[in-house]
């Protein structure tokens, strides 16, 4: 999964110009990847988008996660499947990172067929206390894009927050895509365990004391794998455990 955030890391695929991804400047279409565009004011939509990206990859779909201000909206017709994860801020406003994109989509010169052939799904994050969600879903449909599933709405008022709705919405999305493998032009492999388990965010790396120069790894080699595992379990990412024996491994974000 390629993931780009507002802090501007360069992508490992896609063309890049003035900080904006140009999905197709050479006439090539991006029908075989899963594009996830997010707009977030305080980080929830980013978290949700990364989860969608992880789950897509887990099902065999190459995915790209981009903040909307990193994507050139005029390239949208070249995409095959786009998942939008968007929050609402202010009084029904779009997040700052969506403003340019949204202004582009609202142009009257865009025809009702402009997004013909593009499949999309929208998950909006908001708070039903405000009673105002942004209107991306309707605009995409008005421009000819085809919804894969009904818009999902994550609500701060739900006891589990936006994730209360995201779980079911994602299950529906994978089911629809599984039935329509041509949408992504490749077979989607659905691991039965993946219906309930997300991909782990951490992996444990065991370092050989002689081969690693890391400041985190200073202890002599541990005696057994079991001991290493026990110590790794008690740790936070990048921190040492509290006991005086510093562990010989640490957790790494993946
Ligand atoms: C200042 C502020 C204004 C908000 N305005 C709205 C709103 O107008 N409508 C709505 O549905 N939710 C509103 N929300 C709720 C957010 O959309 C919700 O908390 C969402 O999960 C935030 O996602 P984000 O972290 O990706 O920006 C607002 C939240 C804040 C903090």
Overview of the molecule:
The protein has 254 residues and is of the alpha/beta class. It has 2 domains: 2-195, Rossmann fold (3-Layer(aba) Sandwich); 202-253, no CATH class. Helices cover 22% and strands 22% of the residues. It has 5 helices and 11 strands; from the N terminus they run ββββαββαβαββαβαβ. The strands form 3 sheets. Strands 1, 4, 5, 6, 7, 8 and 9 form a 7-stranded parallel β-sheet that branches. Strand 6, helix 2 (99-105) and strand 7 (119-126) form a beta-alpha-beta unit. The relative contact order is 0.12. Mean pLDDT is 76; it is low at 4-19, 22-27, 214-218 and 236-241. Flavin mononucleotide (FMN) binds next to helix 1 and strand 7.
In this entry the ligands are: flavin mononucleotide
CATH fold type of the largest domain: Rossmann fold
Q: What about the largest sheet? A: 7 strands, parallel
Q: Hey, roughly how much beta strand do the residues contain? A: 15-25%
**What is the typical, i.e. mean, pLDDT?**
76
Write down how many β-strands occur, each being a DSSP E stretch of 2 or more residues: 11
Count of separate structural domains:
2
Instruction: Note the gap between the termini.
Output: 11 Å
Keywords: Cytoplasm, FAD, Flavoprotein, FMN, NADP, Oxidoreductase
Pfam families: Flavodoxin_1
Organism: Thalictrum thalictroides
Protein name: Nadph-dependent diflavin oxidoreductase
């Amino acid at each position: 999964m390629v993931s780009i955030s507002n802090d501007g890391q360069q992508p490992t695929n896609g063309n890049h110009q003035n900080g904006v991804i140009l999905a197709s400047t050479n006439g090539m279409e991006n029908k075989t990847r899963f594009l996830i565009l997010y707009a977030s004011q305080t980080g929830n939509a980013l978290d949700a988008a990364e989860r969608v990206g992880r789950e897509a990859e887990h099902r065999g779909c190459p995915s790209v996660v981009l903040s909307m201000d990193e994507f050139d909206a005029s390239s949208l017709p070249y995409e095959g499947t786009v998942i939008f994860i968007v929050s609402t801020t202010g009084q029904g406003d779009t997040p700052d990172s969506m403003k340019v994109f949204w202004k582009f989509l609202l142009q009257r010169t865009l025809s009702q067929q402009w997004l013909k052939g593009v499949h999309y799904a929208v998950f909006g994050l908001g708070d039903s206390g405000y009673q105002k969600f942004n209107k991306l879903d309707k605009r995409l449909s008005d421009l000819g894009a085809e919804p894969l599933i009904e818009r999902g709405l994550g609500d701060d008022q739900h006891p589990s927050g936006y994730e209360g709705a995201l779980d079911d919405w994602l299950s529906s999305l994978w089911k629809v895509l599984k039935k329509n493998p041509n949408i992504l032009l490749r077979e989607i492999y659905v691991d039965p365990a993946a219906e309930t388990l997300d991909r782990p965010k951490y992996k444990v790396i065991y370092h050989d004391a002689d081969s690693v120069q890391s400041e985190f790894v200073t202890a002599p080699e541990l005696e057994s794998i079991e001991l290493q595992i026990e110590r790794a379990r008690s740790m936070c990412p990048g921190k040492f455990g509290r006991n005086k024996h510093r562990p010989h491994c640490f957790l790494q974000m993946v």
